[in-house]
Every structure is written in C-alpha cells, then in structure tokens.
C-alpha cells in the first residue's frame, strides 16, 4: 500500500506538472484534467505536444504492471465480496450473487464494530507513540556528536531492519507465562512496586495486555524510520534560523514549534500518513502473539479478514473479501485526504 | 451432478450384488470379504494409481502396512494399480484440503476426522457413497453410531476406520505408593490430587481451561446435553442447564482451590502434557496418542504413566468419540475403485492390525472383545472407555461454534476468572444456539 501511495503521488505530480506547463491557475481537483486538455489544444507548437507524451509513455509500463498485480486483484476482491463464495463454491457450482449480504451482516454485527473500534484505537496509539518517540530521538541524534549519533543510528536501524517475524517471536518469548523474561523480572522486583503473582500472568489472553505488547513491537520497529527521516530533515534546516530564534529569545520548545515544525511540515505529513497506513494493516505481529484464531477478543480488521477468508470453518472467501474491501476503502480515503492536503499546500511542486 | 451420474452404473451393480449376497447368506453372519460389492469391478478398468491421504506424520510401520501389506493385497486383484500413501500433518491440514479442492486435485481415498465429516461433506469435498456402503457386507458389523456419525444430511460420506478416546493419564507409581486406585469420580480426583501434592509437591491434577472435548464429557456425566435438534431441524443449545453449569463449575473449582495450577488457565492439554512428561504433574486427561508425544519430550517417567477412564460426577464419564473415517475424495477419477480399496483396508482383519499398530481402537465392536483389550493395561482403560462414548451435534456449524467462536473455552475461561457460571453459560448458550442455526452459505 505504501507503493500505492507513492504511485498516486507520482501520478498527481505528473498531472500537476502538466497543469503548470499549461500555465493554468490550479484550483480544485475536478477541473484540472479539463484545464490541461484545453491548454494542450491551445498549444500551437506540435513539438511541445509530442514532448508531453513522453512522461506518460514512461509510466505506461509501471501502470500496466500495477493493473495486473493491483487493480485486477482489487476488482476480483470486490466481486468476490458480493457473492456467496465459500469452499463449496470453489469446488462445484458457481458463486451466487447475494445482494450485499456480507456487507449487511458485517455492518449490523456488533462484533465487527468492536473489532473496528479496537483497530482504530490501536492504530492511533501506535501512530502517536511512533511519531513522538521518533521525533524526539531524531532531535537527540541531531544534538549528539557525529560519532555518537552514528552509533545510535546504527542501533536504531538494526531494530528497524529486524525481520518482523523474528521480532514478534522474541517478544512473545519475553512475555511468556512462567518462563518469560518479563514475568521473571516483574516477579523479582519488590511487590510494593509492581504487585505480585507475575510469574503466572498470561499476557496473551486479555485483549488489553496483548495489544500492549503488539503496540510495543510495532512502535519499537517503526520509530527508527521516523527518527532517521527527521534527522535528515533537520540537517536541511539552515543554522541561521535557529540563531535568529535564539536572538529573539526563543527556548528549545518555542524554536521547535516556530522553526523546526513549520520547516519540516511536509516531511511530518508524509511520515504520518505512511505510519497510519502501515499500522492500520498490522498482521504478522498479531499472528504470532495471538497464536491462532481462537481468541476473538484480540482481532484487528486485517486479522478478522484473514480469519474469515482462510481460517474459518468453512473458509468464507466472500466475507473475508468484504472486510478487506472495507479496509481498502478506509486506506484510500486516508490517502486521498492526504494527497488533497499536500496539493493544497503546494507541496507537490 | 456429473459425479452422481458416473456412479450410477456402479451403484446399481453394487445394489444387485448386495441383494444376491443377502439371498445367498440368508441372514447369517457374513464370512470373509470376497463377496463385497466391489467384486463386480473389472480389474481391467482399474486406474493406474490410487492415492490415499492419511493424517499425521509418517511412521514407518504404519506406512509399510498401508503401502505394502494392504497395497499388496489390493494388487493381488488389481495388479496394474499403484498405491500411493501420502501423510498429511494434522497441523494445517485444512489448507491442504482447500488447495486440493480448489485445484480440482487431491487423493482418491482420504482419512477424515469424524468430527470434521459434516464440514467437508457440506463443502463438497467428499463423494456420496451411501449405496456402496449399504452394499458392503462388513457394514452391519461396524459400530452403528460411528457409522451414523459418518453420514451428513442423510447421505453417507464415509465409513468409520478407527476410534480414539481421551483417558485419564496418571502417575501409577505415585498412586501405588499412596495406596490409591485411579480416581473415577470427581470427589476421588480431588482427594487423590491433594494427596499427590502433599506428598510429592507437584500439582495433583491439570485442568487447562481450553479443554472442550473434556468439558463435553463432564457435561454428559452429569446427565446434561450439548445441544438438541428440534423437529424442524433447528438447533437449541443446552449448556445453560443446571447439569452443564455443575460440570463447568467443577472444572473451574479445580483451579480456584489450587488443585490445578493457575498457569493452565488459557492453555490446552499441551502444557499439562509437557509437565506430565517432566514429572511435574500427577494426573491430567488426554488421548491415548499423548503417550507418544510425552515420550518424545522426556522418556524418563514414561514407564510410570498409566491410563484410566475419564472421571465423571458419579463414575466413569462418557467420552467424546474421537476417531477417523475413510472417505472417497470428491475429485477422485475412480470412486468405485477407491471404495474397493476402503473395503479392503477396513475389513475386520486389516482394521484390527491397523488399530494395533497405530494405538487406536477398531470400529468393530466385536474386535474390542479381543483378549488383548482386556489384559493390556495400556489398552484396557481405553477399551473400557470405548464402551461409553457420545458424539457432538452432527452439523458443520458445530465446528464453527467450537473452533471459530471457541464458545466452550470462552465460557470456561470466564468462569475460571471468577464470573458466575450460570450467568456466563446463559449468555454463551444463546450464542451457541445462534451459531448452530447459522445459515450455511
């Protein structure tokens, strides 16, 4: 999906580029294509027109590939979600149109909304923690002497580069009942500090405690990316601006919000949207922590979709697809909003 | 539909053969398997290959038996047919079934866990073998309840191959030293468990909360039911009855009174299995197959382990009848020959051999009267338990309610965490009823 966001960006860059060539004032989205057509027609020089086909020809191969690997499967997914499509239909008989029965049953199901609310809450906590922690570490890296900052950055990148599956298993072992490191440490710590009975505590049953570990893994693996991106951004801000802020009597807090943040606004917007999209789809970590599909209290949307489509008895491809469609629509809405904001702010120039 | 048409001539032949056979025998006990329905099959039509999918991990003696012994017997009549045995691990087997089904491939003969029969039958994975089974001369000798449980919606999809039950595993050396017989009632379990803990300082009994087959046993032992089917075909959950409440409460009380460790809450039998293998537990309930797994983990105490029957409220509890059927896969190109192989593999002689090799119990009640099931201590308890078995409701939604929704564990977990059993079971029973009546897409 990160790919999709990038492609969307590229496509928009191309069209705004065309607008700019047409020297039309850019306003709302819908008029844009018309505007660029008009400008193209008005151009007298045929050499200019031929030149402008170039970019489209260049993106044609990647568009074709995207259609095959992305657009076609999405069309399939939507089609499947609108039909009764289970194991039985796979083998014999064709899937039957069921007039939105999957959507009706999901959207009227209290359980789905519980999963939905959990997904939003868990995603929000992950994104906020990742952004705050990443930014703080980025600022820290900027302040550290170069050699030290390199060491810290390498350490961060190791967390970031650890395969998701490996990290998930390590965390699962650390929180293991009786034998896990975390339970052991909590048991060893004085009772007045952390309470007692930790060696028996099972982290993986209760939704709140399992989500805590999930958030921990995801944040641990994603804040280095934010930190390093912020660091790169910080290096591009001229020193003079901070000096000016200091002369005006701004402390660190004020100079962050008055200099750093406005300067890095496009960067933050991009990282934020990527984090939302990534964290919204978290699956692998949950798959390892929940260890199966028995505990329905800990489902998130992506997990629920997979369970319906592949682990249900019998597998219900239609229902799984319907949930996936709902997720896709949500991600597209977020992405579309983001692109709109960026165009508004003229960041795609 | 095509499949049925293709089968028709064979079915007619089979019925005809059965009628002839019945006439010839005049109602006497059938002898030998030579006059089976498949006897009408022409060896010249036999396929080049028959593939059988067996569940579990390949064990050399079992593989040898299927491939060479039974395969060899089959080739005496059908010399051109190669028998291929493929082992499908239980873990993730459904994926493999689904993939084969989607690709229009798969085996000719397949082992199906008896409680999975309704699921795969309703998914179109299995061939209707009603008439072939009706015509087979060994059919009347099979356990009739197991046979019925291999049918779904009035259609026969399999024949029972073997049965398995859970039993009580206990430390025979400790019980001997303490002077106890293996407990058969709930009160006995508590008494013996407390004595073990006092003497050996390990938990006396393991009661994991994820224990649904076992919970069914406990409910049956109090006279309760899981669910009943109304005349209109709809289902009604019964686990809010006082009997079921009593069973759930007893199971949770074992954790509450610290007879069973708190850390078993949320776990299945695998954790007590490991503790049992390592000498850290006195008793727990598991299948006969658990002995092999325990031996793999630690064989130090394996000689000291012995099985007993499942303790019920007032005596031996009925066990959930586990086991497997043999079915003909929907995509088999030669279903008649596949069934012919089943009749050979599952005749009394081969069924007895298989059960002996695999550590299960044959689906022929007559075979259970064999002396070895009375005298061998590792078999006697299971054989006794086999005389009182029950089946869960025969609907594909049972798998949905117990696997997807995991209702029995949800209930047992909530009760173990201190909620009121009657309230919890009232709620969960409503969910069970709703789940069992879910329309099948």
UniProtKB/TrEMBL annotation, chain A:
Highest taxon listed in the record's lineage: Bacteria
Coiled coil: none
InterPro entries (UniProt xref): MetI-like (IPR000515), MetI-like_sf (IPR035906), UgpAE/MalFG_permease (IPR050809)
Transmembrane intervals: 53-75, 115-141, 148-171, 208-234, 255-278, 317-339
Topological type in the membrane: Multi-pass membrane protein
Biased composition (Basic residues): 35-46
Chief location of this protein within or outside the cell: membrane
Gene3D superfamilies documented for this protein: MetI-like
Protein name: N,N'-diacetylchitobiose transport system permease protein
Taxonomic classification: Bacteria, Bacillati, Actinomycetota, Actinomycetes, Streptosporangiales
TrEMBL record, chain B:
Keyword Transport listed: yes
Superkingdom of origin organism: Bacteria
Signal peptide positions (record): 1-29
One Gene Ontology term, aspect cellular component: ATP-binding cassette (ABC) transporter complex, substrate-binding subunit-containing
GO biological process: maltodextrin transmembrane transport; maltose transport
Alphabetical UniProt keywords: Signal, Transport
PROSITE patterns assigned to the protein according to its UniProt record, in alphabetical order: PROKAR_LIPOPROTEIN
Gene3D superfamilies assigned: Periplasmic binding protein-like II
Pfam annotation, one family: SBP_bac_1
Protein name: N,N'-diacetylchitobiose transport system substrate-binding protein
Family recorded in the similarity comment: Belongs to the bacterial solute-binding protein 1 family.
PANTHER family reported for this sequence: MALTOSE-BINDING PERIPLASMIC PROTEIN (PTHR30061), MALTOSE_MALTODEXTRIN-BINDING PERIPLASMIC PROTEIN (PTHR30061:SF50)
GO MF, one example: maltose binding
């Amino acid at each position: 999906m990160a790919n999709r966001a990038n492609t969307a960006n590229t496509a928009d860059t191309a069209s705004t580029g065309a607008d700019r060539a047409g020297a039309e004032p850019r306003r709302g989205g819908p008029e844009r294509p018309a505007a660029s057509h008009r400008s193209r027609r008005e151009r007298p020089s045929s050499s200019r027109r031929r030149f402008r086909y170039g970019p489209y020809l260049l993106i044609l191969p990647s568009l074709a590939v995207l259609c095959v690997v992305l657009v076609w499967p999405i069309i399939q997914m939507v089609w499947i979600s609108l039909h009764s499509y289970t194991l039985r239909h796979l083998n014999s008989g064709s899937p039957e149109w069921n007039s939105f029965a999957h959507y009706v049953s999901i959207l009227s199901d209290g359980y789905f909304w519980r999963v939905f609310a959990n997904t939003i809450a868990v995603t929000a906590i992950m994104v906020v923690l990742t952004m705050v922690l990443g930014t703080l570490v980025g600022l820290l890296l900027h302040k550290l002497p170069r050699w030290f900052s390199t060491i810290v950055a390498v350490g961060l990148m190791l967390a970031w580069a650890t395969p998701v599956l490996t990290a998930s298993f390590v965390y699962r072992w650390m929180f293991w009942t009786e034998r896990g490191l975390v339970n052991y440490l909590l048991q060893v710590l004085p009772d007045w500090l952390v309470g007692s009975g930790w060696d028996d505590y099972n982290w993986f049953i209760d939704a709140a405690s399992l989500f805590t570990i999930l958030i921990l893994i995801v944040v641990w693996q994603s804040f280095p990316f934010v930190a390093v991106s912020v660091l790169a951004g910080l290096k591009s801000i001229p020193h003079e601006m901070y000096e000016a802020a200091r002369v005006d009597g701004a402390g660190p807090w004020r100079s962050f919000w008055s200099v750093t943040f406005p300067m890095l606004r496009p960067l933050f917007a991009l990282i934020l949207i990527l984090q939302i999209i990534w964290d919204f789809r978290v699956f692998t970590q949950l798959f390892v922590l929940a260890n199966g599909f028995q505990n329905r209290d800990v489902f998130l949307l992506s997990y629920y979709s997979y369970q319906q489509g592949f682990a249900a008895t019998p597998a219900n491809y239609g229902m799984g697809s319907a949930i996936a469609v709902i997720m896709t629509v949500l991600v597209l809405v977020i992405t579309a909003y983001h692109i709109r904001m960026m165009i508004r702010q003229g960041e795609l120039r | 539909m095509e499949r049925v048409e293709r089968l028709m001539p064979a079915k007619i032949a089979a019925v005809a053969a059965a009628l002839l056979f019945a006439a010839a025998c005049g109602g006497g006990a059938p002898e030998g398997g030579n006059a089976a329905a498949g006897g009408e099959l022409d060896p010249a039509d036999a396929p080049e290959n028959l593939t059988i999918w067996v569940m579990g991990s390949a064990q050399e003696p079992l593989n040898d038996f299927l491939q060479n012994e039974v395969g060899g017997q089959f080739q005496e009549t059908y010399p051109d047919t190669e028998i291929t045995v493929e082992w499908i691990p239980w873990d993730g087997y459904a994926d493999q079934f689904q993939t084969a089904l989607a690709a229009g491939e798969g085996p000719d003969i397949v082992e199906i866990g008896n409680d999975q029969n309704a699921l795969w039958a309703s998914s179109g994975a299995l061939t209707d073998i009603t008439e072939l089974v009706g015509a087979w001369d060994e059919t009347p000798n099979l356990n009739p309840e197991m046979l019925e449980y291999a049918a779904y919606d009035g259609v026969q999809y399999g024949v029972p191959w073997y049965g398995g039950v859970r039993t009580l595993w206990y430390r025979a050396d400790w019980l001997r030293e303490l002077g106890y017989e293996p407990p058969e009632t709930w009160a006995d379990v508590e008494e013996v468990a407390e004595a073990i803990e006092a003497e050996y300082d390990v938990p006396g009994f393991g009661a994991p909360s994820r224990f649904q087959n076992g919970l069914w046993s406990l409910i049956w032992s109090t006279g309760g039911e899981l669910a009943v089917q109304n005349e209109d075909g709809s289902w009604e959950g019964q686990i809010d009855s006082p009997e079921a409440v009593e069973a759930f409460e007893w199971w949770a009380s074992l954790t509450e009174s610290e007879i069973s460790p708190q850390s078993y809450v949320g776990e299945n039998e695998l954790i007590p299995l490991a503790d049992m293998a390592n000498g850290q537990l006195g008793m727990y309930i598991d299948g006969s197959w658990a002995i092999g797994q325990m031996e793999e983990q630690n064989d130090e105490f394996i000689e000291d382990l012995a099985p007993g029957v499942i303790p019920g409220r007032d005596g031996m509890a009925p066990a959930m009848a586990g086991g497997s059927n043999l079915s003909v896969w929907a995509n088999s190109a030669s279903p008649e020959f596949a069934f012919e192989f089943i009749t050979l593999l599952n005749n009394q002689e081969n069924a007895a051999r298989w059960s002996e090799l695999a550590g299960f119990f044959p689906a022929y009640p007559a075979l259970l009267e064999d002396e070895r099931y009375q005298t061998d201590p590792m078999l006697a308890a299971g054989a006794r338990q086999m005389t009182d078995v029950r089946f869960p409701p025969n609907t594909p939604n049972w798998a949905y309610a117990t696997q997807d929704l995991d209702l029995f564990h949800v209930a047992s977990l909530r009760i173990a965490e201190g909620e009121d059993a009657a309230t919890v079971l009232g709620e969960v029973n409503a969910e069970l009823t709703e789940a069992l009546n879910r329309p099948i897409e």
